[in-house]
């Protein structure tokens, strides 16, 4: 059930929700959205070095939150 790819467009909330299967979520670093396959919106995972010097993935904001923020900005620009 949780291992499905799904995109939900919520126009009243000005959001797009993307569900990724666990394997995909763990194995991607970048999400790219396009409009008419020309303009790109790129969101990347951020990495941080922990006390032991090992890299670990940390999200200042999760990819989903960053996507929502950026999509909201795009929707606002389009509606102007």
Q: How would you describe what is shown here?
A:
There is one protein chain. This protein is α+β, with helices and mostly antiparallel strands and 80 residues long. The chain is 28% helix and 35% strand. The protein has 2 helices and 6 strands. It has helices spanning 22-26, 63-79; strands at residues 6-10, 15-19, 30-35, 39-44, 47-49, 55-57. A two-stranded antiparallel ribbon has the order 1-2. A two-stranded antiparallel ribbon has the order 3-4. Strand 3 (30-35) and strand 4 (39-44) form a beta hairpin. The N and C termini lie far apart (39 Å). The mean pLDDT is 76.
Number of strands: 6
Shape: globular
Structural class: alpha+beta
Largest sheet: 2 strands, antiparallel
Q: Roughly how many Å apart are the termini?
A: 39 Å
**Poorly predicted regions:** none
Query: What string gives the helices and strands in order?
Result: EEHEEEEH
In round numbers, the mean pLDDT is: 76
Cα-atom radius of gyration: 15 Å
Strand order of the largest sheet: 1-2
Discrete helix count: 2
Which properties best describe this structure?
alpha+beta; two-stranded antiparallel sheet; 2 helices; 6 strands; globular
What's the short version?
The protein has 80 residues and is of the alpha+beta class. The protein is built from 2 helices and 6 strands, in the order E-E-H-E-E-E-E-H. The protein has helices at residues 22-26, 63-79; strands at residues 6-10, 15-19, 30-35, 39-44, 47-49, 55-57.
């Amino acid at each position: 059930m949780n291992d499905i790819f799904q995109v939900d467009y919520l126009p009243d909330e000005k959001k797009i929700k993307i569900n990724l299967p666990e394997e995909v979520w763990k194995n991607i670093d970048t999400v790219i959205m396009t409009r008419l396959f020309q303009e790109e919106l790129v969101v990347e995972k951020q990495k941080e070095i922990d006390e032991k010097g090992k890299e670990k993935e940390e999200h200042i904001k999760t990819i989903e939150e960053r996507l929502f923020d950026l999509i909201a900005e795009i929707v606002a620009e389009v509606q102007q």
